[in-house]
Amino acid sequence: MKSKACLQAYQMLEVNGLKTGLKSLLWSAAALVMLISLIVPALNILTVALMMVPFVVLYTTLTRKEFALHLFAVLGIGFFVLGPAALILGLFFVIPSIVMGHMYKRQAQARTVLTVVLLTILGQLLLQLVLFSAVLDVSLTREIGQLIRGSVTELSSQGLLPASWSTEMTESLIRTMVQSIPLTFIVIAFLYAVITHWVARNALRRLHGLEIPGLKPAKEWMMPKILVLYYLIALVLDLIVTDDGDSFLNVVLLNLIPLLRLVFTIQAIGFFYYLADQKRWNKVVPVLLSIPVFLFPPLSLIGVLDVAFPIRKSFKKP
Predict the structure, then answer these.
(1) Is the pTM of this model over 0.85?
(2) Residues ≥6 apart with Cβ < 8 Å to 64
């Protein structure tokens, strides 16, 4: 029954004389398999990271009408297998995929593509947060609180928490995690945009012969100097502002400082690649040097110094 429905759905792609091509059908099949696998534990960790890729490739290589037919088939079969969840999950990934594919067709710069897609995903996350709360009465903050309280109760019953752990500490942890939601959403949107761009761009170049603008080489990365000033101001405010917990300024600092630290961590990685290029090191060396920067956040200071001062001139080849 299901196989018959799948066959009928894909036969619709040939109506009106449209030539879909084998590659397009394979990308549609990949999108369908990924969509269905989102409900499979463990496997969904991989597929959720790559879910946008097939839709980006399809939108970039097909006309809008052809893409709509492929999308209709994928979501239709997904609805038949998973129910309404397929439409909710599918549309969440399709919208930023269309945005990215549209910008690929316009040959937009990679930095512009990533920025727009990041903002699109971020907007969707915020919109879903509001809709889930207003329509389904599902509160993310409430769910986080219940999850943490349940975990603390279980750990406490097993004697895995220190005797000094109190209810106030649990509530403080909940408050911190809830206030960190903006940072979490930004990081999620950033990772989705970067991973999808890297995979989709390579797929389009190697499998379809399309040249899509890429990011500058890591050795050329350089953040705006104004970010150093923002970072210093945030650190000073963090030292002098009273920890009121729920104050607006505390929430801003709680999210801004780790975000800027991540930015300068990326800058430090760029510096390592520049250094490796100037010293003619093996390509593995900058990768190995980047690992400690992620493990020890204070090492992001290397990125701060790289932006604030012309230290690269000291290593420039004559």
Answers:
(1) no
(2) none
